[in-house]
Amino acid sequence: MKWYWVKTNKLIKKLFPGFVWDIPSAHKTVYLTFDDGPIPEITEWVLDLLKQHDIRATFFCIGNNIENYPDIFRKVIAGGHAIGNHTFNHINGWNTGFYTYMENIALCQKEIIENGGPDTHLFRPPYGKMTSAQAKKVRELGYKIIMWDVLSADFDTTISPEKCLRNATKNATDGSVIIFHDSIKAFANLEYALPRVIAYLKENGYRFGTIV
Q1: Which of the residues 22, 35, 36, 149 is marked catalytic?
Q2: How big is the CA angle at 16 (ends 21 and 89), to the nearest 5 degrees?
Q3: Non-local CB neighbours of 22 within 8 Å, separated by 6+ positions
Q4: What's the rounded Cα separation, in Å, for the pair 152 and 160?
Q5: How sure is the predictor about 6, in pLDDT bands with cuts at 50, 70 and 90?
Q6: Is 35 designated active site?
Q7: What are 30's strand-pairing partners?
Q8: SS3 of residue 20 by DSSP
Q9: Under a CB-based contact definition with an 8 Å cutoff, are residues 53 and 206 in contact?
Q10: What is the torsional sign of CA 198, 204, 210, 212?
């Protein structure tokens, strides 16, 4: 099993104040976010589920997937969901040069706009990894760097769907940014956990917001 913070540590939030970890409100609101799409069938399954519950979420899309599956991307937009930039090739900022990283973000932004999406100011670094220089430049370009408060860990194929569900339900609080993945790798956990997470949050009086 991989090691990671399921609930982002308060110290981490203080050490990186330039990143958005959660969005506290007066209305008991949580923010469902989905990384790595759009993907045939997986993203469409997520969209159908969200539509059933009249929920809007935030999708951090990979530019190469938008290029390959523009029709699915447009379905995300048509559903009224917020769109974020997740780089063109899902690259790790720690292993990528500054100019290459910035170019990859620009390429993703180009795909978003050319396929009917907004000129988004939301950015999430793949793996949550980027250098301080990359982060500084991204903010200078007007992006908000959106991290997360709760990690469902649906991407981790070594955990059970039940564990994925507990990760989200036991750690969600007002303002939590909860991360899921509309990817093939995550789908076994996602398919089980997401409907139950939504039901749990609704039963406990949470609203669902989009990140702006």
Answers
A1: 35
A2: 70
A3: 8, 13, 149, 175, 176, 177
A4: 11
A5: very high
A6: yes
A7: 208
A8: strand
A9: no
A10: negative
**What pLDDT score was predicted for residue 26?**
84
Helical pair 161-169 and 187-203, crossing angle rounded to 10 deg:
30
- CA 192/CA 154 separation, integer angstroms: 10
Residue 176 DSSP code: B
**How far apart (Å, rounded) are the C-alpha atoms in residues 68 and 62?**
10
Tell me the two tokens of residue 124.
């999430």
pTM score of the predicted model: 0.97
Spatial contact of 152 and 193, defined as CB atoms under 8 Å apart:
yes
Give the span between the Cα atoms of 16 and 25, in whole angstroms: 20
Amino acid type, 139: R
Query: Could you tell me which of 202, 160, 197 has the C-alpha nearest to residue 34?
Result: 197
Identify the DSSP state of 172: -
Single out the catalytic residue among 81, 90, 181, 182: 181
Residue 181 appears among annotated catalytic residues: yes
